[in-house]
Automatic annotation (TrEMBL):
Source organism of this protein record: Ruegeria atlantica
UniProt keyword annotations, A-Z: Repeat
Start and stop residues of the NHL repeats: 86-115
Gene3D superfamilies: YVTN repeat-like/Quinoprotein amine dehydrogenase
One Pfam family named in its UniProt record: NHL
Protein name: Beta-propeller fold lactonase family protein
InterPro entries: Haem_d1_sf, Host-pathogen_enzymatic-act, Lactonase_7-beta_prop, NHL_repeat, WD40/YVTN_repeat-like_dom_sf, YVTN_b-propeller_repeat
Top-level taxon in the UniProt lineage: Bacteria
Classification via SUPFAM superfamilies: C-terminal (heme d1) domain of cytochrome cd1-nitrite reductase
């Protein structure tokens, strides 16, 4: 099954797994060596990805409606399931053995067993749910409901709905910051909503670049990929004010931070590259070529921030 393998085995805490939609491949990148160490075929136009703390990862291929559990070491499929609907986003709750997948067409989240990928239940959301996130403390689960201009927040343990919070126009990507606040990228209104997951109230709305998509956190800042601007917006977590802009590749999408917050990794869809950014110096350290159409929609770093 291995399409390309380079010498050595990556340190799992410093490994990126990049889903490439156009090329229908999965690229594994060793961040310590700044080198691609494997590239595997992954049919069905993969986009969504969720990486666990062990040697497993999960991907979503929207065209084939396939969710896969793969070995991070060999790329082999351990389990798979076809979900009738529009699977797109994915998040892993490793402690509870659950995987959540959003259904773009049917306003719901599937709840899957993380070992077998059998459907356990479904959760109702607003129209066209895309990104999914789980808070660091494991208390909250949230979805970005794009066509409803809202986020749905659930109790991650009981799976009971808590809030449906209006945000900006067409929210797509979202993530909880280290303090438990929910940051939501609104691709239609070019801003980020900051939501109190406990109350459901919007704490702030921060203007960013054109078509904000993915969000990650490092060193007291939020970093937001702006698809149409080819940039990252930098937001202070203390003041919730826009601080800086970093130029990256063309049409940046997925973004994640390493466990030590020393690197940010950004997938640039249109120029088939990955940008490696220093979140303290606010500069690009490296630009690496990868497979065709990198999306990396989700948590794609082994050992990345919870």
């Amino acid at each position: 099954m291995l399409f390309l393998a380079l010498s050595g085995s990556p340190a799992l805490a410093q490994t990126a797994f990049i889903t490439c939609q156009n090329g229908e491949e999965l690229s594994r990148i060793d961040l310590a060596r700044m080198q691609e160490t494997a590239r595997w075929p992954l049919p069905g136009k993969p986009a969504g990805v969720a990486v666990g703390l062990d040697e497993t990862l999960f991907t979503v291929s929207p065209d084939s409606k396939m969710v896969r559990r793969l070995s991070a070491e060999t790329g082999e499929t351990v389990a798979q399931v076809t979900l009738e609907g529009g699977p797109i986003g994915i998040a892993l709750d490793q402690d509870r053995g659950r995987v959540f997948v959003s259904d773009w067409y049917n306003a719901r989240l599937w709840v899957l067993d993380s070992e077998t990928l059998k459907v356990q239940s479904e959760l109702p959301t607003g129209a066209a749910p895309a990104g999914i996130a789980i808070s660091k403390d494991g208390r909250f689960l949230a979805s970005a409901d794009k066509d409803a201009d809202q986020v749905s927040v659930f109790d991650a343990d009981t799976l009971q709905p808590l809030h449906r919070s209006p945000v900006g126009s067409r929210p797509f990507g979202l993530r909880f910051d280290p303090d438990g606040r929910l940051f939501v990228g609104n691709v239609g209104s070019n801003d980020v909503s900051v939501v109190d997951a406990e109350t459901g109230s919007v704490l702030a709305t921060v203007p960013v670049g054109e078509r904000p998509y993915g969000i990650a956190f490092a060193h007291g800042r939020a970093f937001v990929t702006n698809q149409y601007a080819n940039t990252l917006s930098v937001i202070s977590l203390e003041t919730l004010e826009h601080e800086a802009v970093i130029d990256v590749g063309e049409y940046p999408e997925g973004i994640d931070a390493t466990a030590g917050e020393d690197l940010l990794v950004i997938a640039n869809w249109f120029d088939n590259t990955v940008s490696i950014v220093d979140p303290q110096a606010l500069s690009v350290l490296e630009t690496m070529e990868t497979c065709d159409g990198p999306r990396a929609f989700g948590r794609f770093l082994q050992g990345g921030r919870p």
